[in-house]
Amino acid sequence: MTRVALLWHMHQPYYEDLVTHEHVLPWVRLHALKDYYGMAALLEEFPLVRATFNLVPSLLVQLEAFAEDHARDRYLELGLKPAAALTPEDVVFVLGNFFHAHRSRMIDVHPRYGELLAMRGVSTAPAHLEAAARRFAVGDLRDLQVWQKLAWFDPLYFERDARVQGLVTKGRHFTEEDKFALRGVELEILNGVIPAYRARLEAGQIEVSTSPFYHPILPLLCDADVYRRTHPDAPALRRPFRHPEDAAAQLERAAAYHHRLFGRRPVGLWPSEGSVSDAMVPLVAGAGFEWMATDEQILARSLAIDLGRDDRGHLLQPERLYRPYRVAAGGRQVTCAFRDHTLSDLIGFTYAGWPAQRAADDFLGRLAEAGRRFASRTEGEEATVFVVLDGENAWEHFEGGGRPFLRALYGGLSAHSELRTVTMAEACRGGSRSLSGIFPGSWIDANFYIWIGHRDDRRAWGQLSDARQVLDAQGGADTQARARAYEELLIAEGSDWFWWYGDDHSSEHDLEFDDLFRRHVRNAYQLMQQPIPDELFVSNISTTAPPAVQADPTSLLAPRLDGEDSSYFEWLGAGSFEVPNVAGSMHRAAGSQGLLTLIKFGTDRERLLVRIDAAREAKDLLAAGYQYGLTFLEPEGRRVTVSAGLSTPQITIWRRAAPGGHWVREGPHGGGAAAASVLEVALPLRDLALGSGVLPATLSFLVTLIGPAGGEVERHPSHRPLTVIASSRQFEATNWTA
Questions:
Q1: Are 215 and 272 in contact (CB under 8 A)?
Q2: Which of 127, 166, 342, 496 is the most exposed place for a label (fewest CB within 10 A)?
Q3: What's the pLDDT at 660?
C-alpha cells in the first residue's frame, strides 16, 4: 500500500493598505467564492479521502474581514454601485478590470459574459476603453456587474443553489435587486469558508497547516546573504538584511492565529514557496511545528545526488524521495517532507488540457507505479508520496473549475487497492531518515533567485532594510506607532511583492503589486514620523512587461510555405503575438520552460495562415514527438493538430462530437504545412466551416504545444485567444488605406 499525502496550498498576499484600509485587489474575495469554500466542501462527497490544506494567515485575516462585511475593494464597490450612477471614470475602470478571468473557462462559457467582452474589445488602452464605454448602455453595465462576480462562484453553487441557478438561467437584463440578492449569496459563502475547514478538521478528514503570517521567505529574513550560496557572484544588497527575530515573529503569529481560528496550534508548516535553510530550522521547531515541507530538488542538493527520472518521469531512486526525513540544524530537529515535483506540476500545469477522467487515471497510475518501484527497491517497504501544490490558481484553467478532475481523482483514490491517502502529519510520523542540515533554497530551482536575484528585487530589499534600520533606531519611542510601523514592514517582507519584480513573472497587476509594496514601506516611515525616501514614490519596475495582447494583421498574406524565415516581407503584414517569457502567477517547473516564442497569423483570400517560431527548430520538435495545435473558439468546436508525417507534416482537423464531448477526426482537408526552422500552416477556411458550410467571418484560436506523452505542455495566449477577420472582403474594407 502506498501512502499519498496531498497538500493544497491556499495563499494570498496582504492587499489592504493599513492607512487607507483599501484592499487594492479583489483576489481574496473572488477566490473565496470559487475555491476556498468549495475545496473543503467537496471532500464531504469523499469521506475516505484524507488531505491537508495549508491556509496562510495573510489570506485568512482578510477573509474574515470580507465575511464580516468590514472590508472593501474598488471592484466590490463598483460592482454594487447602481449601474445608472456609475461615472465615466467608473465605467472605464469597470470595462478595464471586470474581465480578469480565464476567457475560455470562465467568460466564454457564459454567453452573455462573452458577448460583453466582445462589445468591449481586446484592447484595454485608455482611449479604447473610453470609446467602448459609449457602446455600453446602463443595462449592459449592470449585466457586467453581475457576471463579473457570478463567473467566480464555486461550481457547487451552480449545481445546487436555486438562487444562483436562477441568475444563470436569466443570463441578462439583471436588476439592481438581482445584484443585491447575489451579494447575499456572496456573504453566505464568505462566512462559510472557515467553518467548512473547521468541520472537516473536526471530522478528522483533513489537517490544516500554516505558513509564516505574511508569507515571507524565511531564509532571506534570517540572512539575505544566504542567496549567495547558489549565486556567489550576485551583487550584494546595499545594506545587509539579517532579522531572524522577524522570521520568529512571523511563525509565532501564524501559530497563534491558527489556534484562535481552529482551537489548536498547527503542527505543520509549508514555508513560503517551500523555502528552507539551516537557520530557520530551530525557529520552526521553537514555534512548535513538528513537520515542514519543501521540494525534491532541495533533498537532492542536501544529499548531493541526482535523483534522476526516466523518459516517463518516474524516479530512478524512489527510495530516496518517498519517505520523510529528520533535519537537524542549530541544535533542533524537525521532520521534513519533500514533494514529488513532477507529480505536483502535472496537476498544476498539465492536466488542465486533458479530459478529467483521463488525467485522474494517469495520475493514479503514476502514484501506484511510484509505490511499486519504491517497494521493489526497499524489500517491500511502504512508500509515502508527497504531492504539494497551489490549491486555487490551477482550477481557472480546468474544465468546470477543476471539479470534474477532482471528483475523478478523489473517487479513484477512495477505491484504489494500492493507494491510501493520509494527512501530512500522519505521513511524517515514523520511518524517517536523518539529514544533518538542509540545502538553502525554494521549490523553484532550489534557490532564491525569483525573490532576490533581479535588480528590482535588490532595490526593494534595500528599501526594506533601510526602513528596518530606522525602526530599530526608534527604540521604545511611541510604542503604539512603532508597533503599527513594524506591522507594515512585516507585510512588506511578504514574498509576493518580490515575485512580480524582474522578468520571471508578469501579470496585469504588476504596477499594483509594486505600488502596494512601496505603500507599506512608506506607511512605516509615516507612522514613525520619519521622512519618506523619495525613491519610494518611484516604481521599482525597470523591466517592461511583455505584450499582453496581439498585434493585429494589417494586410492579406502570401507566404511561401517552406518552413523557413525566407523573406522579411512574406509575413510583414501578419498579426503577431510574442510569447511572454513568464509563467504568470504559477511558475512552471525547471526543465519545462516554454518552447514557443512567436506566433504570426493572418489570411489570404481563402486560407488562415499561421507561423509558429520556437526555441528549437520545428522539424526537430515534430521528430521528437511534439505536436502543434490550434484550438478554435470561433468557430467553436474545431481543432487542428500538426504532427510529424512521412515527408511533410500531417494536419488533422477535429470537431467536437457534442458540446463538451470528445474530439472526432474530420474527413479529408485541403490544408498544407511545412516544418524546418519554423512551422508554417495554411488552412482553407472551408475546412473550418461549421456543419452548415457557412464560412466563419472571424477566427479566434489558441496555439498549443502537445508533448510526446500526449499532454498539453503550453497554451498561448494565456488569457485570451488570437483573433483575425476571416472574410477577405471585410478585412480589406477594414484595413483599406489610400
A1: yes
A2: 127
A3: 41
Report which of 602, 614, 578, 622 is spatially closest to residue 683, judged by C-alpha positions.
602
Last residue of a domain, one of 537, 565, 587: 537
Do residue 596 and residue 499 come from a single domain?
no
Which residue type does 665 have?
R
Q: In whole angstroms, what is the distance from residue 165 CA to residue 309 CA?
A: 47
In which order are the strands placed within the sheet that holds 291-295?
268-269, 291-295, 332-339, 325-329, 433-435
> Do residues 698 and 579 share a domain?
yes
Q: What is the tally of structural domains in the chain?
A: 2
Residue 205 cell numbers, joined? 478528514
Question: 628 in a domain, yes or no?
Answer: yes
Joined grid coordinates for residue 426: 500522519
What integer pLDDT is reported at residue 506 of this predicted model?
82
674 and 728 assigned to the same domain: yes
- Residue 658 is predicted with a pLDDT of 67
Please tell me the predicted confidence (pLDDT) of residue 593: 54
Kindly state whether residue 7 falls inside one of the protein's structural domains. no
456, 518 Cβ separation under 8 angstroms: no
Q: Quick one: 720 and 617 in the same domain?
A: yes
CB atoms within 10 A of CB 114: 17
Instruction: For residue 141, give the C-alpha cell.
Output: 453595465
Q: Which of 185, 152, 148 is nearest to 166 (CA)?
A: 185
The grid coordinates of residue 51 equal: 488531505
- Domain range spanning residue 628? 575-734
CATH number for the domain spanning 657: value is 2.60.40
Residues facing 717 on adjacent strands: none
In a domain, residue 583? The reply is yes
Cβ neighbour number for residue 522 with a 10 Å cutoff:
21
Q: What's the CA angle centered on 398, arms 396 and 401, to 5 degrees? A: 60
CA 34 – CA 691 distance, rounded (Å): 36
Q: Is 453 helix (H, G, I), strand (E, B) or coil?
A: coil
Confidence (pLDDT) at 74:
96
What residues of the chain score a pLDDT lower than 70? 431, 476-477, 544-549, 581-593, 658-662, 690-693, 718-720, 728-738
Work out the number of other CB atoms within 10 angstroms of the CB of residue 365. 12
pLDDT by residue (tens digit) across 213-236? 999 999 999 999 999 999 999 999
Cα 579 to Cα 215, 464, 554, 566, 635: the distances in Å are 30, 33, 20, 22, 23
Together in a domain, 626 and 716? yes
Spatial separation of the C-alpha atoms in residues 572 and 566, rounded to whole Å: 12
Shared domain check, 608 and 690: yes
* Cell digits of residue 498: 518580490
Asked if 701 and 722 count as a contact pair (C-beta separation under 8 A), the reply is yes
Would 9 be classed as within a structural domain? no
| DSSP output for 493-556 | TBHHHHHTSSSS---TTHHHHHHHHHHHHHHHHHHTT-PPPGGGGS----SPPPP-SPBPP-S-
Q: Are residues 634 and 709 in the same domain?
A: yes
Contact 52, 206 (CB under 8 A): yes
What pLDDT, on a 0 to 100 scale, did the predictor assign at position 430?
75
By the 8 A CB rule, do 74 and 93 touch?
Answer: yes
Give residue 537's pLDDT: 76
Q: What is the pairing mode between strands 672-675 and 627-634?
A: unpaired
Q: Which of 537, 554, 588 is the last residue of a domain?
A: 537
Residues 344-398 have pLDDT tens digits of 999 999 999 999 999 999 999 999 999 999 999 999 999 999 999 999 999 999 9
Q: Which amino acid is at 502?
A: G
pLDDT in the model for residue 592 = 42
* Single pTM value for the model: 0.77
Angstrom distance (rounded) from CA 243 to CA 237: 14
pLDDT at 594: 78
618 and 726 together in one domain: yes
**Peptide bond preceding 82: is omega within 30 degrees of 0, i.e. cis?**
no
